[in-house]
Specification:
Elements (H helix, E strand, L loop, with lengths): L1 E5 L2 E4 L4 E8 L7 E7 L6 E6 L6 E3 L7 E6 L4 E6 L8 E8 L12 E2 L3 E6 L1
Parallel strand pairs: 2-11
Antiparallel strand pairs: 1-3, 3-8, 4-5, 4-9, 5-6, 7-8, 9-10, 9-11
Amino acid sequence: VQLQASGGGLVQAGGSLRLSCAASGRTLSRYGMAWFRQAPGKEREFVARISSSGGSVSYADSVKGRFTMSRDNAKNSVYLQMNSLTPEDTAVYYCAVGLYYNGRDQGYYEFWGQGTQVTVSS
């Protein structure tokens, strides 16, 4: 599976961005997916995950109510709508596919995108 993340950029605090993650090489509709992020000097952390059908979604407390994860299985893609961004959201954002797992532990996700940089200025 190849994952291509896009949509990152520079935005002012309070602004919005929509990240996309497109997959090739495998149909994703059977698999759960997730977004993680890694800020400078910090470990990579869980952001959001979505079930294969899209019927179950959960978020890290730090983004709950501001971020929305969704998927379009017809387009083999997942998305992360990020609103009310703060400088603390600055990080490289990664999408990941879990063939057998769809929780918050990054260690169980088998395939990863290359990451897209999100920078939020104050």
